[in-house]
Batch of 4 targets.
Target 1
Amino acid sequence: MKKKLIYLSLAILSFFIAFLLWKEYHKHQQQFPVLAYHRIVLTEEEKDVDALTVEEFERQLNYLKEKGYVSISPEEYYNWKEKNQKIPEKSFMITFDDGYYSFLKYAKPVLDKYHFKATSFVVGEFTGETSSEGTDFIGLNDIKNHDGQITFGSHTYGLHRQAEDGTPIIKKKTYQELREDTKKFQALFPAEYLAYPYYTYTEDFIKSLKEENYKLAFAGEEEFATKGVDNYKIPRIPASRSFEEFKKIFETDQFKNKYGNGLIRKICVTINRKLNISL
């Protein structure tokens, strides 16, 4: 009986040591934040929970430039993941949801000033032929004539909605309905990248994206992106926050992927988030 207890204790100790080494290994793998924005506005009075003023946005980008960070495109991330091409050590990605015209009017000049790349995910049913200062959304004329610093992707054609009970409508759609929406967007302009509305996806939706040859799809989860994460479940971190909270993304381990990917990660993240126990 005493021998069994010793062997059991040694096994538990060995597992714990292996877990710590495995966790330390993953913690030091290259990873970076994908920042999620929505609207950029001129004044504090125009702000909502998802918006930043031009001044706040520029303060963030100035901080990142001074710290030596380099923005990358979804294509560069994909090539790093799938083709093992190198990306800068201090990489990050900028994404904007909904296709608001304020992206071109207010955000783009700041992006150009700091030589940063960005991606705008537009909603198909809101996308007209042209955009101007009098419209709320970017038009096809600007999408088809953009410069190399900007990538345009899909935020679905008509699924940026909620059902009457508040559930994102994506969860209530059949595979065929999701596939039709995906095909309808591709008829608007060919997109290779998508951001899920309300950070919500289903396995049927992912299947429809694969059928239409999407390379990457972006969700939520407030965690750094890694090489091993699923191509259709890439995490992003909302960036419309106070400057002090924004700096925590880059200066602390709060948002880093500490557990790699797979079953063990799911268990650790669940314990961490549900029980507030950090493993």
Note: Residues 14-28 have pLDDT under 50 and may be disordered.
Target 2
Amino acid sequence: MAANDTISDMLTRIRNANLARHQTTEVPATKMTRSIAKVLQEEGFIVEFSEKEEGVKKDLVIALKYKGKNRQPIINALKRISKPGLRVYANRKELPRVLGGIGIAIISTSSGIMTDRDARKQGLGGEVLCYIW
């Protein structure tokens, strides 16, 4: 399936796999999806991710993280902010705080993909890709 918005596609696949309590999910591998998966791993929302190659097609296999005996998902919600039809940018002073700092906003800056916290530390603004909590 060809998706124009690979970030929305990635977030939807993670959301659906989380709701179905799947151990892993596969998303098409792009530079952007790799960067987002790296941030999610650093922030403790996923266990790990690896790359699977089948001929020309490359996928990222993302291992989801759960807590407790009931296997409650670590990721409660994912929300896409900047879309292809309406880009949302924030300068360093306007960077959003998700649920008062409990969640994270993933920002695309000139120094790469990072959390809102890291962008604030480095004094960078950029495109607000999504919120995760």
Note: The radius of gyration is 15 Å.
Target 3
Amino acid sequence: MLKLVRYQKRELPIAVGCEEIIYSSSRMFAAERKNREALGVLADKPVYNIPYSQIRKIAALKNHIWGL
């Protein structure tokens, strides 16, 4: 526990390239517009991680429905 307290009190040097950058709102909006243009319709879609077992179940259901 004492090691942890001592480690937290030490100030670690900042890595090169990790300086704080302050963006203006116009630059942020321009970056968002550029991102939206590059991704198109998919820009606002959420990304989900589905476990492999569920992917197999979903694929099996879709194949069964398409086969009807």
Note: The longest helix spans residues 52-67.
Target 4
Amino acid sequence: MSAIDTVLNTLIRVDGKILLLIQEYIRIPELSPWVVRFTKLGNMGAIWIVIAILLLIPRKTRRAGILAIVSLIGSFCLVNLFLKGYVNRVRPAEVVSGLNCLVTTTDASFPSGHAAAGFAAATAIYKSTRKWVGVPCVILAVLLSFSRLYVGAHYPSDVICGAIIGFLIGLIVFWLFGEKKYKRRARRARRR
């Protein structure tokens, strides 16, 4: 067994133990149906699409809405169309003995599409609009990501990697298409 296999097996064991701890100590039977409904808001980026469309309405937040949509498209292409099929990691309910998954899932586990979409859109929104709009979006992305662990649909490493990928996509989209003042400052700095 190579060192990489050892590290991956250790990661899978730790991921499984964390999910079992969440199931045993954090899951509350009365709260679970609500968390299942909440986590479904992230299916296919639905809640983020709605938020982006709402941001398109006022002129002041239109750029944030456009950047959120571009970030969601980037996240979908990279995570759902490429990485999930390439890595093809099985869902934790199929591997972790004793884990009860509260939702049905059909695609691969790695990385979390919910986390990637949430952090891509939230980062783009946070960077391109006022904080009173951006901060709740970041909080929503964190809560939706945690809900994927709560329901047993993803390993913690799936969610963490999905969040990092989404964050980077949001930053790249903002850097490429974002704030005009930001680009003007960068051009002035290059001329000096």
Note: The chain has nine helices and no strands.
